[in-house]
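Methods — Computational structure assignment.
A single polypeptide chain was analysed. Its primary sequence is given first, followed by the predicted tertiary structure written as structure tokens.
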Amino acid sequence: MAQDEGRFGRISDLRPCWAPKGIRPKAPRQVVRAYLYVYTAVSMALGKMTSLILPYANTAMMSLFLQEVAEDFKDYFVIMLADQARWHVSKKLQIPENITLIHQPSHSPELNPVEHIWEDLREKAMPNKAFTSLDQLQEALCVRLRQLHDDPETLTSMTNFPYLRVTV
């Protein structure tokens, strides 16, 4: 599995969009510094994922997330790729018995397949939208995360990097 957390906020993300010739599309723009953190772990080969939307990125939230993953994948021993964020390497991090973390090299987010999920969320759940509250943002993120959760083929095609495939 691979794991990462992404920060999503109410700062709008303007993207190009289509409009009929002669019409200039309008897109709302805002800068409100309020954020949520999406924690996601994905099993690339199975096309399964676990996600939680939490208020902070810290050791306590990571421990909570790992407990959720351990429960969702209780029939497996999970080897999880994670970056070297300070809450991933903290001595206070509570790692369940059926999970082992492997840390990817520092400053190499391109090695983590979950980064593709963040790109998908930003492209499909958030473009050209100004959310009036964090609840509205959370609902948009939940809708797209559920769509990905229910589509293992898309999830696998986005995240099953060749260097992570296990061959027997």
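Note: The chain has a mean pLDDT of 89.
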